[in-house]
Amino acid sequence: MRTLALALTAVLLAGCSGGSSGAAAPTGTPSVAPSADQSSASSPTVPAPRLTAAQAERALIGADALPAGWAVSADTLDDATHDRYDPKTCAVLALGAGALPLARVGFTQSGDRSGSLVQTTYRPAGRTPAEALAAMRSAVSDCASYQVTRGDVVTKVKTSTTTFPAVGDGTYAVLLQYSGAMMAVSDLVVQVAVGPQLLRFDSISLGNSLTQADLEKAVRAAVDRVRAA
Fold first, then answer.
1. Region entry Disordered: which residue ranges (predicted)?
2. Which domain holds residue 38?
3. How far apart are CA 194 and CA 169, in angstroms?
């Protein structure tokens, strides 16, 4: 299973089906405010518990955490079991540093559906959340560009580090830019450690996306829900 559910799917399906007649470069590439130290957390309040899958499901944010016009979407899961990454080490950027998913929810804009948000709550396999964030940070430095192959469709990915306000027990953000066939997709990935869990947010843009302020509001709401679970 994977956390990046919509961005790569959109690109790959465009390659398989032909997509639209022109390139749709993202115009809503997220702009994020600088943070003095992304790995530093904001002032902790209540220690986060170790969630069961049922608790993680109940702690997911709802559409009320997002601006008007966003709604829960059923199209959030994608089977990437057979995707091939070149270099192989870059798979960590899509698979969430050895994810053991507990719960997932996705949202889309109800109008033109050019923006999506996917939240995944998971525990990293065989490592602490801090170590998982470090693994992603290391992968980004080694994967400035890479490619993903599904069947005979090849998607090129470029990565760039970015910043996001410190939230939870540690935060790391990276921008993934996918191109393939006749589409371009950007995905602002924000990973937040909350106790023994990681919360991953994929803010995916096919033209429009959440503003940085709206995304931060949703992320903070998710952290509060986990702490209160």
1. 21-49
2. 7-228
3. 5
Let me know if residue 47 belongs to a domain. yes
Question: What is the number of residues in the chain?
Answer: 229
- Number of domains observed in the structure of the chain: 1
Instruction: Show the 3-state SS of 5-41.
Output: CCHHHHHHHHHHHCCCCCCCCCCCCCCCCCCCCCCCC
CA distances 203 to 120, 131, 177, Å, are 12, 23, 12
Both structure tokens of 32: 């994020």
The pTM assigned to this predicted structure is 0.79
Residue 199 DSSP label: E
Distances (CA, A) of 82 to 85, 110, 113: 10, 31, 27
